[in-house]
Amino acid sequence: MVKGVGDLLESYRKNKSVREARLLRFPTEPGEAIYNPSAPFMLGGQRMIAGRAEKDFRSQIKFFAIEGEKLLPLKTKTELHLEDPFITQIGNELYVGGVRLEYDSPEDEANFRYSAFITDFYRGEDLDSLRRFAVGPRNMKDIRFISMPDGKLAVCTRPHGLEKRYGFTATIGFTVLDDIGEFNAETIAGAPIFTDLFAEKEWGGANQLFVLKNGMIGVLGHIASGEYDGDVYVRHYYSMTFAIDPVSRSHTQPKIICERADFPPAPARNEGLEDIVFTAGLERYQNGTAKLYTGLSDFAAGCALIPDPFAEFEE
Fold first, then answer.
1. Measured between alpha carbons, how far is residue 140 from residues 75, 173, 239 in Å?
2. d(CA 309, CA 311)
3. Helix spans in the chain (H)
4. 167-176 burial string, b = 16+ CB within 10 Å, else e?
5. 91/304 Cα distance (integer angstroms)
6. Tens of pLDDT along 34-88?
7. How far apart are CA 145 and CA 135, in angstroms?
8. How confident is the model over 283-314, as pLDDT tens digits?
9. Cβ(236)–Cβ(225) under 8 Å?
10. What is the value of pTM for the model shown?
11. Which of 181, 246, 270, 281 has its CA 20 to 30 A from that of 233?
């Protein structure tokens, strides 16, 4: 039986163990907000993180060096005018993705009337050598991939607009490709979907993938619902995890691991977004804990220490 957000949230609140939740303090320009970060990553011996920097409704990816709790801006030659960055590393290469807005005319762009959103993927050995190598299907976000020990690529997708056929708004697709050379809009769009992850009128997506010790793919993602409060559509986003067997395609059921109330107060981008946790990434530690990184209410970012949510699948 598929559990809805209400049941999952009730189970989470009975056993929640979020600790040391705090806001991330990105250095910003006047009128700029930085939120929806990537997971931290190592490059050239430096620990880094990327963030969505937004000013006047225009977004770009900015990179920061992590020095203790300080975040120091890094200058790069490549400008990525994308939203919601995510990071993957395969061998010596860095893979950076983000969402690009498409406009039909300069006038539409000037008035922020976009006609579609598209996920772009870049690769390079460092931040200055990033070049676009793939483009996702039109109007699909939350496409994530990871290299498995046999060199194949595990890919999660997020088709949406599925209400009439399945009842839920969007779900997660999953496929395994022979290598990164097969990664393109056609193979992404062709990934079979899971129809038993989300309840009616709810949705979710993957935000980061992990190869677990037993060969399963750990999925860090989000689960969401919404309703109208008068004229305002109020969204509720929660961080969640589950695991996929890449051979049988069987999966565990999602489990909520944090909610917006776990973090300190911060402004929301606008009304209806107060209860948003944008799942960003996770660092797993040897002592059975993990640090979760999130966006908050489409205006801020945070991190928190939690029990490693994937440890149960490796026991």
1. 29, 11, 19
2. 6
3. 5-15, 106-110, 163-166, 185-189, 311-314
4. ebbbbbbbbb
5. 29
6. 999 999 999 999 999 999 999 988 999 999 999 998 999 998 888 999 999 999 9
7. 13
8. 999 999 999 999 999 999 999 999 999 999 98
9. yes
10. 0.96
11. 281
Nearest CA to 122 out of 180, 64, 73 is that of 180
The residue count of the chain comes to: 315
**CA torsion angle for 53, 54, 55, 58 (degrees, to 10)?**
120
pLDDT of residue 117: 93
Please write the tens of the pLDDT for every residue from 217-240: 999 999 999 999 999 999 999 999
Give long-range contacts, CB 8 A cutoff, 24+ apart: 69-75. Answer: 69/25, 71/24, 71/25, 71/26, 71/27, 72/27, 73/27, 74/48, 74/127
Q: Extract the tokens encoding 36.
A: 């929806």
3-state secondary structure of 186: helix
Per residue in 96-123, is it b (16+ CB within 10 Å) or e — as a string? bbbbbbeeeeeeeeeeeeeeebbbbbbb
Distance CA 53, CA 298 (A): 11
Token pair 């999130």 is at which residue? 294
Q: What is the DSSP string of 13-52?
A: HHH---EEEEE------TTEEEES----EEETTEEEEEEE
